[in-house]
Amino acid sequence: MLKRIIKVAGLVILVVFILAQFFGPEKNQGDVASVEPFFAETAPPEEVKLILKTACFDCHSDVTRYPWYSNITPVNYWMNDHVEHGKGDFNVSRWIDYSAKRKDHKLEEMAEEVKGRHMPLPSYTLIHKDAILTEAQIHSVLDWVEQARMPYVFKAKPE
Fold first, then answer.
1. Which of 7, 40, 59, 141 could be cross-linked to 86 through a Cys-Cys bond (beta carbons 3.0 to 4.6 Å apart)?
2. Which helix (H) or strand (E) holds 116?
C-alpha cells in the first residue's frame, strides 16, 4: 500500500513538473540600445563597459542574457525574482529618467556594493564565473564611478 502511494505521489509530482514547464514569467529582453544613454553620460572605459555588461546588466537593465537552464521551472521564477529585484534597486535602462541627485546616489551605491563585494551576488557568480571581479576590476570600477559622479555631485547639491 505504501509503495503504491509513493508511486502515485511521484507520478503526480512528475506530471505537475512537466506541466509547469509550459508556464513561466515574462523574460527581460528589452532593447540593448536602452543602456546607451547610461554609457554616453557616464563614459566608462571599454574595460569597465565589459565588466558592467558581464557582471551587472543581467539584473540591472532591461536586457538579460538567459542561459539554457533559465527555461526550467522553477529556476525561471527564481531568476525573474532576482532580475525584478535588481531592476527595482537600479536599472541602467532607465538612467535618463533619474534626476541628477538620484544618478549620483545610484553611482555611489554601486561603488559601495562593489567595494564591499556585495555585488555581483554570490548566487549569480556561482554560475557566472566570468562575473567574479578581480581586485584590479574592482579598482577600475571604483575609479570610473569616482569620475562619473563628478557632474552629478555639483548638480545634486541643494542651492
1. 59
2. none
